[in-house]
Amino acid sequence: MLELMTNTPRDYAWGSTTLLAELEGREPTGAPEAEVWFGDHPGSPAVLADGTSLPERLSAESVPPLPYLLKLLAAGSPLSIQVHPSRAQAQAGWAREAGLAMDDPRRNYRDDNHKPELIVSLSERFEALSGLRPLEVTRRYLSVLGDAEGVQQLRSLIAPAAGATEADILRRAIEQLLAGDSARIVSDVTEALAGAASVEFADELAAARRIAAVYPGDPGIVVAMLMNLVVLRRGEAVYLRAGLLHAYLSGIGVEIMAASDNVLRGGLTPKRVDVPELLTLLDTTPAVVPVIRPQALADATAVETYGPGIADFALAVARPDARAGVVSELRVGGPAIVLASAGHSVVELDGERVSLAPGQAAIALGATGPLHLSGTGEVFIATPGEGIDSAS
Question: Which strands sit side by side in the sheet containing 314-318, from one edge to the other?
Fold first, then answer.
């Protein structure tokens, strides 16, 4: 089975008013358009051409729920800082909260699954915060902020301490910023940002100023300054594992994640921040987070894969080019979603054929033959983990 599917953009306040419209080649609506979900998630299930929802079709075909969710994500302003649990942590949290109603404000866990994520930039520049920066670099960064009382307090929070590792120092600093009296730190750091200048940290300062303008007074402003700023170019990706503090700041991308709603927030949000539970999940070991570049799939023409080598999902990108006689044939294991991101693409499977323009997607179920990709475009192919292989 190969069928087109559509969905309505989610109107979260941080969404861009232009990026999705530009991708799809239409006029902007004037409202924020944050995400388009391509999957069977009950929060916003995709709809097939005949009006059937994807969950209904999967059930009719006796296909289990998808283990992943594929999205287009367009950030016009920073998202909340957040972290996701491991599967073991999610299972323990879900069991611990078994007596709470699903709409209970004290509930942190929506299911018993983990939620690793990978996002690929479709923008020429996509900015994200990912993981905690090594303290030596952060101390150098904070040195450009002057000597106001709150700035000095922040420097004291991350100063070396006898017997404490960098992970210990960062954990205590984040706890103090989110759960303690950090108002003076936030106000003085925000004021210092306005006049700070640095060649080395120009991008970090610009990002911090934008964050402070959107979330004035939020302690997440300062937490964000402890994190790595990751700048992706088009086609580059970042993988967000369990325990890794992260936030998207700007740009449009293709995001794939395990099918879960488990999110613990750590600032830049009006929503509840459960600091003790956040700290139980958080890996505060500082490290530079690598930028992922796709790797060519063996024997597959014009196909590259992003991995990431987990059971829940795999993601590949294909760029067929009819002008050069380049087509791609892939075998996909399990339900696959094909999402167009540029140009015009044609997808064929077991005698069925669909054409895709940017922003359009199709679902492939029960494939017996290879997935054939042609045209002059770019498409992303999502499957359960390790489900993409060359058809040759």
Answer: 47-48, 2-6, 361-364, 336-342, 378-383, 314-318, 303-307, 295-296
